[in-house]
Amino acid sequence: MRSTKIVTSFIKDDDKLLILKRSNKVKSMKGLWGGISGMIEGNEEPLERAKIEIFEEVNITEDEIVLIKSIKEMQVSSHQYENHKWLIFPFLFESKKPKINLNWENSEFKWIKINELKNYDTVPSLDKVLFNLL
């Protein structure tokens, strides 16, 4: 079985959570809502990859975020990809009134209350990943 290591970060501003809609230009999970995610390359530290992805995908710099919590990696599967497991390294950051500038990987963003996540078509197990951080 193949596996892919992924960081998934959430940014919180007071009682709102940033979610992103994956664009049609990405390879996987097109059109689904998620956190800020990216593949871990080589022996890269997950926290460093998370910060890189936050800057690349929404243009928030490291000095604009504060790490609130991280948890041990979680294994997630998807019906879209048989014989594949995703090893997710989750992070929760806080940022005050950040200006969001999306790159090509995402087509929309929304600030939602955490209990509204159930109203969105998300990447597999996003709710489980998030609730383990809260």
Quick summary of this structure?
The chain has 134 residues and is an alpha+beta fold. It contains 2 helices and 8 strands; from the N terminus they run ββββαββββα.
Explain what you see.
The chain is an alpha+beta fold. The protein has one domain: Nucleoside Triphosphate Pyrophosphohydrolase, CATH 3.90.79. The chain has helices spanning 46-58, 126-133; strands at residues 2-13, 16-22, 33-34, 36-39, 66-70, 74-78, 81-94, 106-113. Strands 1, 2, 3, 4, 5, 6, 7 and 8 form an eight-stranded mixed sheet that branches. Strand 6 (74-78) and strand 7 (81-94) form a beta hairpin. It is globular, with a radius of gyration of 14 Å. The chain starts with a strand and ends with a helix. The model has no long low-confidence stretch (mean pLDDT 92).
Core attributes:
about 130 residues; 8 strands; Nucleoside Triphosphate Pyrophosphohydrolase; single chain; alpha+beta
- Based on the coordinates given, report the CATH architecture: Alpha-Beta Complex
Q: Output the structural class.
A: alpha+beta
Spatial shape: globular
Number of spatially distinct domains: 1
CATH-wise, what's the superfamily?
A: Nucleoside Triphosphate Pyrophosphohydrolase
Helix-strand layout with pairing:
Layout: E1 2-13, E2 16-22, E3 33-34, E4 36-39, H1 46-58, E5 66-70, E6 74-78, E7 81-94, E8 106-113, H2 126-133
Parallel strand pairs: 1-7
Antiparallel strand pairs: 1-2, 1-4, 2-3, 2-8, 5-7, 6-7
